[in-house]
Amino acid sequence: MPPDSPSAGRRGYAVLAFTICFVLLFSGSLLRDYDDPLAQLRRTAGEGRWKQFFGSSRATCGISPSMLDEFGLHNFRLSQVHVGSGYRTQRFLEKAQKGKTLRVGLIGGSVSLGHGTDPVTGQRNKYGAVPVQEQWHQIVMRYLEEAFPTAEFHFRNGAKAATDSSFFEWCWTSLIGTDVDLVFIELAVNDDPNTSFSSSENLLRSLLQLDSQPAAVYVDTFSLYNTFAGKQQTLLSAQDIQSTLSPFYDVPQISARPALLPALIRDHSLKEPWFLGDERHGSTSLHRFLGSMVIGYLMEERCRVEELALAAGEGGDWPSRAALGTVPQVTMRERWNSTETHATKPPTCVTAGAGLVPANEPQDWKLVDWKYSKFYYEAAVPNSDEIVFDVDVREGAQGLVAISYLRSRQYNLGRARCMVGERGADIDGHWENSASLAQTTIVADKVPPGRHQVRCRTLAADGSSGRSAFRVMGVMSV
């Protein structure tokens, strides 16, 4: 039959139509598999065929279609302030895929304790106003347990209200331990963006230098008012410090602010569904959004595991993969070729209500608590007797000894003097900041390894104000 005959033409169209239908049906199944974040776990047969066809597992996972339908791809993109290489996160996910036992730690503030106004009773300043199972980190943990059913996850919530990086850089070891595999850091609304750069960086460095080489992820919510040290209210927060540290230390940063804050500025009515009785603590809805953004990031990192392993660019003058996961020898506050040395071992810390016990029997100091969530050793009189605490300095530490104390414009707080041997510091527990926060002051430096003692006593009442009390929260070394 001639090739240009009507019958040949019809046959050609039929073949073309059949081919198109086959491609559409086949590609549809691939797209369904791509959209399903758990497809790689459930699929055992034929896995080699998928990889052979695509060259990697990129087509078999990603952000789930239900999450994309609800939140929109643009919100996931906006939330990923910084992603980086993904090296540490991917290593954590690979361990989970192999069914390992993994420890997940959280360092955060009152947001991560579900703080806010109880929507039922109207009680303000309630921890757990957002129920535990609806807090952002528990949403993430449920995803990990579902996505990696053969792994065993242990979660450690080291969140502590009214604290910031100046406390956590010294005391995180007492809250989440030193054998963690993944650490979430939620301190964007706690840290003062004007003063916390150093403590934020020290905290991050000490986490990344652990023997377990954990992955770290900044997870940021936001506040509608940020007033620090009596300065004008601003939308700036410690997220803007983290945005500088993240690329330098190759740490991802996931935040609710880029998507939600501009939307709230356009529509003020969104404040009520997103915040829980104030302008600082997120509601259940905001927790769900933040947790979902973290899950979306983790889903995408699962897809990138093989891409990183197969990445080219190992020669010439450019950095190789071998450098991934290493911590720069210098901080961002130093010269690139600085010869300064920094602690390579984690800090030590013991806090009131969690193991800190005086080495003597003071008469003027008492252990007090605030709503069974914050504990202090308090002296309420001027010129008190001494309270003495033991402190250990590790080999490989910088030799700094410090105390953590409450600073507030409330509670009649005044001044105290703390000493290590013949060295010490006078510390003021009062400030005009509207927030009551744990602060840290170095008492002595160049302290040799071994056991030492910190001695504290209150000083004379502060002038006409009569402020004389002082609250010690913890004793630490680094």
Structure commentary:
With 478 residues, this protein is an alpha+beta fold. The protein folds into three domains: 9-58, no CATH class; 62-231 and 238-308, 3-Layer(aba) Sandwich (Rossmann fold); 348-477, Jelly Rolls. The chain is 32% helix and 21% strand. The protein is built from 14 helices and 16 strands. The protein has helices at 6-35, 39-42, 47-54, 65-71, 73-79, 87-97, 136-147, 165-171, 173-176, 197-208, 239-249, 257-266, 271-274, 284-309, and strands at 80-82, 101-108, 152-157, 182-186, 215-220, 253-255, 348-351, 365-370, 374-379, 387-393, 401-407, 415-420, 423-428, 437-444, 450-458, 470-477. The strands form three sheets. The protein has a six-stranded mixed β-sheet with strand order 1-6-5-4-2-3, with helices on both faces. Helix 6 (87-97) crosses helix 14 (284-309), helix 7 (136-147) packs across helix 14 and helix 10 runs parallel beside helix 11 (239-249). The longest helix is centred in the first third of the chain and has 30 residues, at 6-35. Residues 22-60 have low confidence and may be disordered.
Write a brief caption for the model.
This is Capsular related protein, Esterase, SGNH hydrolase-type domain containing. With 478 residues, this protein is α+β, with helices and mostly antiparallel strands.
